[in-house]
């Protein structure tokens, strides 16, 4: 198996990566009261030193009431949090890596007993003033990301969080310009967020948008049931300023639509023409949902991943749990040392190393 193609550089606008591997964003909630610390800087810089092409941080929240559902999810606003995120970016750069924050608002999801002081926000409860303030907060976070020296940014529009709640008819019952019967109509909020971010960061700064069909509220959901619906949904987002789409699946090898073995990222690239990131149990035997029941996963071959990549289905590959378990995963893949790769242990979710 010749893996050279996975280690060719990737270039788009102002972003040049040394290989095709991306560290997937993974919620850690180790930032005390929302402020990242030196341990978090070491955690990311360790993976940069081990050859990851681009690090996507854990979700970092914008300056809005109830933007997070756990106390120690990191903020991407406030003097202390931003100063420390600048130190994280510098540490990654010093170890030869590139880094992009994932910018997030959780909507009305609840992860545990902790509740924010402000009421939860959702498409059905937000006023037009709330919506505009939220768009402005996304843009402000993006502006800060560029000013702090980050190399790109990712908008979290997947998994049943706020932006995705606007997409989904089950969570968006609005009757104004931010609602509607069609997915295209319900995309207005995401479009306005992307446009505001593009204005804030300029034309050459790379914007990534993470999307999913499935929701944490319902794993079987499909927003787009056909390639035509997918195109109607995503082409306007590309035109608004999305450079790279991150197509989230639980298992990257599963086809998105009948009649083709293309996965979600493959179809997104086909209908938009934009670069895409694939993700979902890369190199592992079981998807990540088992983590919540203490389930680990064995390592598996990446032959199918390579076949799809060489066919041109996607441009970048996000790796989550394998890099959480083993910071040297990319180096081991490059060396062909697959026997040295560690199986995933669910306990790794509770560690920061």
Quick gist of this model?
The chain has helices at 38-49, 79-94, 128-147, 162-167, 183-186, 188-201, 227-240, 264-272, 303-311, 321-325, 329-335, and strands spanning 10-12, 15-17, 21-23, 54-61, 99-104, 153-156, 207-212, 244-248, 276-279, 316-319. With 353 residues, the protein is of the alpha/beta class.
Q: Which shape, going by the Cα principal axes?
A: globular
If helices are DSSP runs of H or I spanning 4 or more residues, what is the number of helices? 11
**On the 0-100 scale, what is the average pLDDT?**
95
Order of helices and strands: EEEHEHEHEHHHEHEHEHEHH
Number of strands: 10
Strand order within the widest beta sheet: 3-4-5-6-7-8-9-10
Q: What radius of gyration results from the CA coordinates?
A: 19 Å
How far the N terminus sits from the C terminus, by CA atoms, comes to 31 Å
Largest sheet: 8 strands, parallel, barrel
Estimated structural class = alpha/beta
Low-pLDDT parts are: none
User: Could you estimate the helical fraction of the residues in percent?
Assistant: 25-40%
What is the beta-strand fraction? 5-15%
Describe this structure in words.
It is a single chain. The chain is 33% helix and 13% strand. The protein has helices at residues 38-49, 79-94, 128-147, 162-167, 183-186, 188-201, 227-240, 264-272, 303-311, 321-325, 329-335; strands spanning 10-12, 15-17, 21-23, 54-61, 99-104, 153-156, 207-212, 244-248, 276-279, 316-319. Strands 3-4-5-6-7-8-9-10 form an 8-stranded parallel barrel, surrounded by 5 helices. It has a two-stranded antiparallel ribbon with strand order 1-2. Helix 1 (38-49) runs parallel beside helix 2 and helix 3 (128-147) packs parallel to helix 6 (188-201). It is globular. The two termini are 31 Å apart. The model has no long low-confidence stretch (mean pLDDT 95).
């Amino acid at each position: 198996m010749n893996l050279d193609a996975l280690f060719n550089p990737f270039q788009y606008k102002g972003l040049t990566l040394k290989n095709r591997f991306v560290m997937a964003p993974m919620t850690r909630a180790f930032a005390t009261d929302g402020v990242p610390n030196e341990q978090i800087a070491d955690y990311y810089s360790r993976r940069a030193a081990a050859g990851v092409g681009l690090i996507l941080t854990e979700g970092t929240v914008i300056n809005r009431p109830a933007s997070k559902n756990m106390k120690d999810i990191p903020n991407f606003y406030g003097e202390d949090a931003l100063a420390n995120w600048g130190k994280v970016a510098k540490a990654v750069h010093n170890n030869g890596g590139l880094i992009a924050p994932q910018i997030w608002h959780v909507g009305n999801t609840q992860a545990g007993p902790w509740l924010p002081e402000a009421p939860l926000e959702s498409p059905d409860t937000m006023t037009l003033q709330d919506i505009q303030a939220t768009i402005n907060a996304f843009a402000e976070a993006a502006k800060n990301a560029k000013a702090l020296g980050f190399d790109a940014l990712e908008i979290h529009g997947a998994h049943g969080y706020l932006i995705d709640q606007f997409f989904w008819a089950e969570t968006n019952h609005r009757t104004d310009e931010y609602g509607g019967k069609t997915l295209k109509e319900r995309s207005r909020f995401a479009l306005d967020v992307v446009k505001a971010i593009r204005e804030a960061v300029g034309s050459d700064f790379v914007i990534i948008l993470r999307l999913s069909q499935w929701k944490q509220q319902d794993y079987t959901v499909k927003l787009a049931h056909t390639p035509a619906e997918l195109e109607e949904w995503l082409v306007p987002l590309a035109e608004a300023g999305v450079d790279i789409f991150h197509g989230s699946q639980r298992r990257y090898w599963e086809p998105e639509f009948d009649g083709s073995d293309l996965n979600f990222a493959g179809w997104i690239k086909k209908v938009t023409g934009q670069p895409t990131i694939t993700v979902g149990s890369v190199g592992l035997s079981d998807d990540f949902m088992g983590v919540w029941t203490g389930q680990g996963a064995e390592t598996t071959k990446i032959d199918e991943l390579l076949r799809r990549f060489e066919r041109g289905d996607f441009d970048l590959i996000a790796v989550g749990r394998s890099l959480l378990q083993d910071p040297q995963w990319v180096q081991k893949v490059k060396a062909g040392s697959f026997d040295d790769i560690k199986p995933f242990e669910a306990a790794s979710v509770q560690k920061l190393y």
